[in-house]
Amino acid sequence: MSVVVVGAGLAGIACAREIASAGLAVRVLDRARTVGGRMASSSLDGRPVDMGAAYFTVRDPEFAEVVAGWRSAGLARPWTVELAVLANGDRSRSTGPMRWAAPGGLRSLVAASAEGLDVELSREVRLVEAGPLVDGEPAEAVVLAMPDPQAARILDPALVEAALVADRPWRPTVTVAAGYPRRAWPELSAAFVNDHPVLTLVADDGARRGDGVPVLVAHTTAEVARTFDADTAAAVPMVVEAVRELLGLTDDPVWTEAHRWRFASPERDRAEPFHLGGGGIGLAGDGWGSSRIETAWRSGSLLGREIARRLTPAAGG
Questions:
Q1: Do 293 and 10 meet the contact criterion of CB atoms below 8 Å apart?
Q2: Which end of the chain, N or C, is less packed with Cβ atoms under 10 Å?
């Protein structure tokens, strides 16, 4: 038997990496066709565009070491410490920690972290139950590295873990990428959009990628995402018009792409970094802590170490 990690986002891959480093067998399963989860990057007009998380920050010393490795490999780059804040027709600036980006898209960081692991894509898990069992097959331990509502769908309702992920509200968003004929907007890396009926964030994808290509990526409010849940593409005209008004654009985009995230972020943080029950079922992800990429890495890594600690003595006889 092996440990089974369900979810090939950063949390799941970080968890599997720790388990594999301890010399234990581990498999990662994901229903998607690529790794990355909400660190998704789509190939649009011949280049990667980040359609999920907009950037990441670094606080944890261990995560800083991982990021240093990504940077040395040319996979990650420091982007900006300052974002614009747009509200009620006014523009101000918000400073903070360094925001990091990835020239090849954030998904490339997860893909690099997954190298050498046993990852099976396009594999949908339907039921995790006591044993633990994954679709009826026994495992040493099982990790669900995903948003709570997705975990709730596949957990046996009789499990303690099912109660932990039940009824916790999550915010949706729709991400719209738009390619323009030229860069004709005020200089900005990205902008928080406050008190707006349509938008919460607009990012200059050419700036964060470092290639200067005229692409903007906008994230909608939860209310807009709920309105267009059944027809995500129908949200595009509203978002494009909102971006036009916000930035004073005169050009129309030459292409657009939309992606719906039903579970973009939890409405409430958790204090615990992960869960691991006595029955060998674990929960991890950026929903365990504050919703950040760094949180996902830390949650998965800490859970992986705890699973390795529990299983290694038994494996040693």
A1: yes
A2: C
**Lookup result for tokens 């050009």:** 251
Give the integer Cα–Cα distance in Å for 6 and 145.
6
What pTM value is reported for the model?
0.95
pLDDT of residue 252: 97
Q: Which residue has 């890396």 as its token pair? A: 189
> Alpha carbon 64 to chain centroid distance?
18
Contacts of 270 (CB under 8 A, 6+ apart): 287, 288, 289
* Spatial distance between the Cα atoms of 50 and 278, rounded to a whole number of angstroms: 38
**Which residue, 240, 245, 272, 270, is CA-closest to 256?**
240
CA distance 28 to 34: 12
Torsion sign (Cα): 92, 96, 102, 107: negative
Residue 27 neighbours by CB distance under 10 Å: 18
| HSE, side-chain direction, 13 A CA sphere, residue 216 | 30
DSSP string, 252-302: PPSEEEEEEEEEEEESS--SSS-EE-TTSEEEESTTSSSSSHHHHHHHHHH
How high is the pLDDT of residue 138?
98
β-sheet bridge partners, residue 191: 84, 202
Q: Tell me the β-bridge partners of 84.
A: 93, 191
d(CA 293, CA 12): 12
Low-confidence ranges of the chain (pLDDT < 70): 313-317
The 10s digit of each residue's pLDDT in 171-211 is 999 999 999 999 999 888 999 999 999 999 999 999 999 99
Taking each helix axis from N to C end, the angle separating 107-114 and 61-72, rounded to the nearest 10 degrees, works out to 90
Taken in order of first residue, the domains within the chain and their CATH numbers are 3-47+106-168+273-315 (3.50.50.60), 54-61+78-105+171-265 (3.90.660.10)
